[in-house]
Amino acid sequence: MDAGDHRAVTAAATPLVRFEGVAKRFGETVAVDGVSLDIAQGEFFALLGPSGCGKTTLMRMLAGFAQPDAGRILLNGQDIAGLPPHRRPSSMMFQTYALFPHLNVEKNIAFGLVQQGWDKARAAARVEEMLSLVRLEGLNRRRPDQLSGGQAQRVALARALAPGPQILLLDEPLAALDRKLREETQLELKALQRRLGVTFMIVTHDQDEAMVVADRIAVMRVGAIAQVGPPAEVYERPASRYVAEFLGEANLFPDGAGFTLVRPEKMALSASATPGALAGEVAEIAYFGDRTRYVIRRAEGRPLLVSRANAGPPAALAVGDAAWVSYAPEAAVALGS
Amino acid sequence: MRRPWLAALAPYLWLCLFFAFPFLLVAKLSLSHTVLAIPPYAPQLDPGEGLAGLRAFVRQLSFETYARLTSDRLYLASYLSSLRFAAVATAILLLIGYPIAYGMSRFAPRTRQALLMAVILPFWTSFLIRIYAWIAILKPAGLLNAALGVLHIAPLSLLDTDAAVIIGLVYAYLPFMVLPLYAVLERQDERLIEAAQDLGCAPTAAFWRVTFPLSLPGVAAGALLCFIPMVGEFVIPDLLGGSGTLMLGRTIWTEFFANRDWPAASAVALVLLATLAIPIALFQRQQAKVTA
Q: Which of residues 192-231 of B touch A (CB under 8 A)?
């Protein structure tokens, strides 16, 4: 959490974006319910939550496509309430990419530059720069319908970055890609952000994606922020049962009014009785290659999840075997209700 | 299906029966010459005389009528005038129809259905009656002048003028312009407009750089759907136009019924068809591109 703490301090010093008690309702539904949030200059920030939690609405309010019913959104300390989308220094990459089907790759990327009145030579140079940035050199004349999903995603990214936005908004940018390409692209996106130093804000429902790319994550729940922090902090020290269960897998033990959390990978599994260990029986074994996940059924209480890295030889356990589960006291995290 | 080739043949049979056969009849007529008889043209093909009769028949056919079309300035004037009427009306239809279609596509889906009904509703009344209604509106003591009188504006004498023909054409063909435009505008992705705005376009710039270019297939469809039948329009110029209003539909009618010159009427109709084949072909190519 060392790097995270450092960034948290910067965030407090000069927020690029500040949400102040922002609320938005659509008819009877409250989409965003009094969100306050700071995003630091140069940060890769993730809004993470299940669908319908208000994360996209929050981003669209920053882009100017929706107006808050209450609260303020400050950009560099200035309230941007009156600014229409075309006057905001943010760029958005849409989930569906929204490439202009009547324009080729080059003209799609130059779209914002033309609107800003860049002269032709300078715009052309910028387009080339963007194409090499997203590794699509030579595809200038392709039409959007001639692009693969991954290429279209890169063009959308290049188009959004070309005008040099102060903040890039990514709305589920990788949701349409298949898993392998998505994982590669996550790393690329993170490297790109670090290289450019531009502030990125991503909206995603994919916890792995948020943890891989983001410096800080805001976990959202029905229009409110459940917790904000660096990925490791949110995962290791969740503030609530909701966060604990939304990010990764969790073993929760009732503990007075609250719960004690132990992550499956912090559990030790043994085929022989150990003092203080929880006894049970192997109910299920799921092999993931790099790790194996065991479901241990107990006489009472919820089944336990144990994740074991497949670093050494496989454990000599089969479904139906008796098993003992233990964990170090420091692996346990006390949660409120 | 037991005999799929039969089903495949059906549209061709239909086409032969209702297009190719009448077309050949008209083509044959246009190569005949007028006579004072019933029917008023010659030669007649007598199937009883066999092959010799057919040979004699073919020998008597000639392109003389077509030569007449080029020598008489009236025909050329009538072609040009028809094309001009259709072009002017198409331009006005675009100017009126586009905002209507665009406005409709911006409403909530439920409202859109109601507006769509409103566009289609006039079709439920006879076309002829609707054009007659325009006579009542445009005539010197008609509704328009009564309304102008209330506003203390001098009366207009529009009926029996070219302007009345344009008004009638625009009125009658408006749905044919609005519907294809609406179809393209309605399915346009809202995100594209947002993307344009996000990249610095004010709403008007977003319209001209994204919405309009993407609606061009609809513009082409609407324009051709109106232009093609308007060139040959007969009822509207006949009821609303003046005696000097030259349009091909009327020319054909006059040749056929007043002059009893069936070959000339047929030749004019065929030349019209040939002229329109170009925009029709363009239209179909463009449609094929849209669906591809």
A: 192, 194-202, 205-206, 209-210, 213-214
- What class does CATH assign to A250-335? mainly beta
- B194 and A116: CB-CB below 8 Å? no
What is the ipTM score, two decimals? 0.87
pLDDT at residue number B280: 79
Tokens representing A126 are: 């910028």
Domain assignment present for residue B69? The answer is yes
Q: Domain A1-89+197-248, CATH 3.40.50.300 — does that match?
A: yes
Q: Shortest Cα distance from A86 to chain B (angstroms)?
A: 4
Q: Is B191 on the interface with A (CB under 8 A)?
A: yes
Say whether residue B76 is in contact with chain A using an 8 A CB cutoff: no
pTM, full prediction? 0.84
Query: For residue B21, what are the CA distances in angstroms to A3, A159, B263?
Result: 85, 57, 17
DSSP conformation letters of A205-274 = S-HHHHHHH-SEEEEEETTEEEEEE-HHHHHHS-SSHHHHHHSS--EEEEETTEEEEE-GGGEEEESS--
The arrangement of strands across the sheet holding A15-26 comes to: A29-40, A15-26, A70-75, A78-79
A chain contacts of residue B204, beta-carbon cutoff 8 Å: none
